[in-house]
Amino acid sequence: MDRLSFTPTFQGTSYGIGDQIGLIWEQTREPLMVPLLKLMVVVCLTMSVMLFVERVYMGIVIALVKLFGRKPEQRYNWEPMKEDFELGNSAYPMVLVQIPMYNEKEVYQLSIGAACGLSWPSDRIIIQVLDDSTDPTIKDLVEMECQRWASKGINIKYEIRGNRHGYKAGALKEGMKHSYVKQCDYVAIFDADFQPEPDFLWRTIPFLVHNPEIGLVQARWKFVNSDECLMTRMQEMSLDYHFTVEQEVGSSTHAFFGFNGTAGVWRISALNEAGGWKDRTTVEDMDLAVRASLKGWKFVYVGDIKVKNELPSTFKAYRYQQHRWSCGPANLFKKMAIEIARNKKVNLWKKLYVIYSFFFVRKIVAHVVTFLFYCVVFPATVFFPEVEVPTWGAIYIPSTITLLNAVGTPRSLHLLVFWILFENVMSLHRTKATFIGLLEVGRVNEWVVTEKLGDALKMKSSTKTPKKPRIRIGERYA
After folding, report:
1. How far apart are CA 382 and CA 448, in angstroms?
2. E strand or H helix at 101, and its extent?
3. Cα–Cα distance for residue pair 333/429, rounded to 1 Å
4. Could you say which DSSP state residue 44 is in?
5. Which of these, 361, 371, 372, 413, could form a disulfide with 431 (CB 3.0-4.6 Å)?
6. Residue 393 CB contacts under 8 Å (≥ 6 apart), including other chains
7. What is the residue-wise DSSP string for 298-366?
């Protein structure tokens, strides 16, 4: 009897809870949920328009640059370095080449070999390997590689420090303190997986020698493993747009863009005037570029000079990289927005460009609207028929933005749908990192070195089973 009386009581209680939840939903749906969703639609549409205008503006500028604009060698005074028989090699400026690395077992030989292979008078160049490795075995290997090149007559310095304070920024800052750096005029920086061509300095240094107002020359990245997998193809599409459009537009219009942290040459006096390397964020390269620009220095981007490097080929490595690239700019924007606004050395238009276009729209709005609108608000409107998203906001604007993003990599147009899905998946991670940077909480200063495969990647590629040649039907039957 007890069992029989227990069952109806349980069912009645369960029905009552469900009924109460349904009642609460009906009572809050109209007065709370619908207005809130409508407000979110308006906010997201506003951000979409901001991003749309920014993309269209850059598209127009890059079209004009390609059609009527002059190349950097024509916009600035560029002449090849000429040999002076009286002065000899002393006529050439002294160049420091810095290679920061951390446990780079797979790529240390590639980067050191490429740097030592740079064509420049041997007594006017210093290769500086800044090794922060914590693995003793890798440390020994890097040191032996430096000694091997030194035995060939290369002026190479192997530098270590007692801790990893400041990570890459700390290593670069420490490297600039050595006495032999004082004799150098310029510093070229290459991450451990970057392999510059031998003529890199001959093509970049003249910009700095003949144009005293230029503080930075930035080259383009060339990805050696873009065909490794679908994920690297997606990365190539995003980064090609960054270099083809964003960097080119910034260089052509305001002589400002974010330093990419590698494959660039700095005028050491500009670097020092800006305050040197700082480790207050995870984007020390962008931090330095903004500070140098506020001092009045100009930057030039040379897209024709390409430096080979490696894309992250594992999702874990890519996720850590994207956290750093999303969190750092947002954190830097918070720290520098007021300083930029109060600066007296740059004009109002450049301030607006840096604060609004460079930081707010590209580094914050772009991430937030991709996740909030396309992954949350838009799908939620399915459950609220009374909340409508206009056609221009649901189809025309996102389609235009997507197509404009794809112009940098025409060969991957057929992968556009996969790129959209990939970017939406990553938008949650980027948005989270953006708010971490703005609020300065949690992993705001987390620095995880992007894993590189180097020789392991080459071995993997060489062991792939070769594709069978296609045989036409006629040949098959013949």
Report:
1. 39
2. strand 95-101
3. 19
4. H
5. 371
6. 41, 44, 45, 48
7. EEEEEEEEEEEE----SHHHHHHHHHHHHHHHHHHHHHHHHHHHH-SSS-HHHHHIIIIIIIIIIIIIH
Instruction: For residues 263 and 305, give the distance between their C-alpha atoms in angstroms, rounded to a whole number.
Output: 9
Cα(470)–Cα(349) distance, integer angstroms: 57
3-state DSSP assignment of residue 214: strand
Q: Residue 78: what residue type?
A: W
Residues annotated as catalytic are: 132, 285
Order of strands, sheet of 156-159, starting from the edge strand that comes earlier in the sequence: 156-159, 125-131, 95-101, 186-189, 264-267, 214-223, 298-309
Q: Answer yes or no: are the C-beta atoms of 238 and 405 closer than 8 Å.
A: yes
User: What are the pLDDT tens digits along the chain (478 aa)?
Assistant: 444 444 444 444 455 787 777 777 777 777 888 899 999 999 999 999 999 999 999 999 999 998 987 889 889 999 998 877 777 788 899 999 999 999 999 999 999 999 999 999 999 999 999 999 999 999 999 999 999 999 999 999 999 998 889 999 999 999 999 999 999 999 999 999 999 999 999 999 999 999 999 999 999 999 999 999 999 999 999 999 999 999 999 999 998 999 999 999 999 999 999 999 999 999 999 999 999 999 999 999 999 999 999 999 899 999 999 999 999 999 999 999 999 999 999 999 999 999 999 999 999 999 999 999 999 999 999 988 889 999 999 999 999 999 999 888 899 999 999 999 999 999 999 999 999 999 999 888 887 777 777 655 554 544 454 444 443 434 333 3
Please indicate, yes or no, whether the overall pTM of this predicted structure exceeds 0.90.
no
Measured at the alpha carbon of residue 353, what is the angle toward residues 348 and 359, in degrees to the nearest 5? 130
